[in-house]
Predict the structure of Sulfatase.
Amino acid sequence: MPDDASAGNDAAGGGTWRDRHPATARTIACATTALSAILVLLALLLPNQLALLTPGRFARIPVEGIFGAALLLVLPPKTRRVAAALAGAGLGLLTVLNLLDIGFNETLGRGFNPVFDWSLLDDGESFLQDSIGRAKAIGVAIGALALVLALLVVMTLAIVRLSNLMARHSATATRTTLVLGTVWVACTALGVQVAGVPVAAESAAGLVQNRAQQVRASLEDEQAFAKEAAADAFRDTPGDQLLTGLRGKDVIFTFIESYGRSAIEDPLVAPGVDAALADGTKRLRAAGYSARSGWLTSATYGGSSWLGHSTFMSGLWIDNQQRYRTLTAGDRLTLTGAFKRTGAWRTVGIMPGLTKGWPEASFYGLDRVYDSRDLGYKGPKFSWSTMPDQYALSAFERLERGRTHAKGQAGKRARQHAKPLMSFIALTSSHNPWAPLPKTIGWDEIGDGSVYNAIEKAGKKPVDVWKHTAQVRTEYGKSIQYSLHSLISYLQKYGTKNTVLVFLGDHQPVAKVSGDHASRDVPVTVVAHDPAVLKRISGWRWTPGLRPGPKAPVWRMDTFRDRFLTAYGPQPGSAPSRPTP
């Protein structure tokens, strides 16, 4: 019991804060309870797609809330408190996953995979650094982490508070739960809707079930894919039987970042890109080249370019990070590896997007890989892209092709002893955020890249471009035009009668550019000077020129490897192609 002194202090101080301000305390308590109920309701009804985030989605009765309330009402006090805390943490985690789904759907056109996709958050942070600067990106990352912790803590406290309230007013809580349950059943039976959305909701339970199925399917896929990867029709094909139709040719495989079907068919983007393709077709035809173009359906969308690269090269559908790890840890024959196996080509990779070591080089069968540190670039970055495409191609010519195409007696001796080149080039200037953009300049002006300092400073800022969807799409189109102009101009200037170019997109751009319902198709083109090269693929029914027509065949990207190896392998009654003098 308090002594007289403490009692006097309480009397003098007026008791606790609640005693001194009862009305304010009741108001705050009611507001806190109402806020707890609103947070729980929002979490239970939150969709995982931005397009579904409408007021009607929240004018519903979640069945999970009814069952949860009923369960908490019948549990003993200690068990009830533990169950409430666990339910709150679980609901907070579900909210975090739904928010990740919204982000992934907006950028990659698919939901977040809780088994494979955690590593992609690093790529998202890198993109933010390129778009808004390092300091702001760090601030966003800290804010995101704080939001996750806040959701877990606040949601737990909210359900614990509501649970305690129901326990103190169990009779009222029981009647309310029964009424809401009856209304939910009636709305289900009658199909009652608000703004086209059913009032009786069970979305949270469905999302949890989908998550569980997704995790189980992902884990099962790992084992199934390992068996699929082990089956390879070309595993034991001798090198002297591979690619006989391309012997003596310099073959260049080039990926253009984010070069998707939207670039050719979107009403806002297509006019400029189509004009660049039409002009390129005309210019290459004048130089003696012909082309055929079709469509491939990429295994990825909006990002994760390495999944598209590996799908194209391996002949396997690589649509998640675990499949990629399994593939690159094995000995699957890739397109580039097939050139290596023949012993008839020197194989090189030009990878300006790489800023550190790339262990996968050995898997792809590349004799030499040039990353951003090896290309001698002294100019500025263009947001994510470490250097302009034209500079990367110029460095490729200087470091590799120029050795065997030099003029004079020294060049003649080099050609006599050098193998033709098979090159794997990943161009990056069309990587988002598409600002600032480089400009095409004279090949003799490129030098060490310092000339790009003024061009970069005069370019647009990503934070300004991304304020408006139309402007983002416009700048995306300009970036594709630049990449195409650079590649076509390179072939005009440095290509020979033995040059064969295969170029394609790795994936469609993000949904902000390509739309919510875009396909995963990307253009693919084969360009050659020697008519015999294109004759080998005449049965593919591809569109003549650099632009694939709307009715050109659409193949899954993983089918290309086998089609290519078959088309350019030995054919009945034919001898291996010889290089043109």
User: Anything to note?
Assistant: Residues 1-12, 413-417, 573-581 have pLDDT under 50 and may be disordered. Residues 134-168 form the longest helix (35 residues). The radius of gyration is 31 Å.
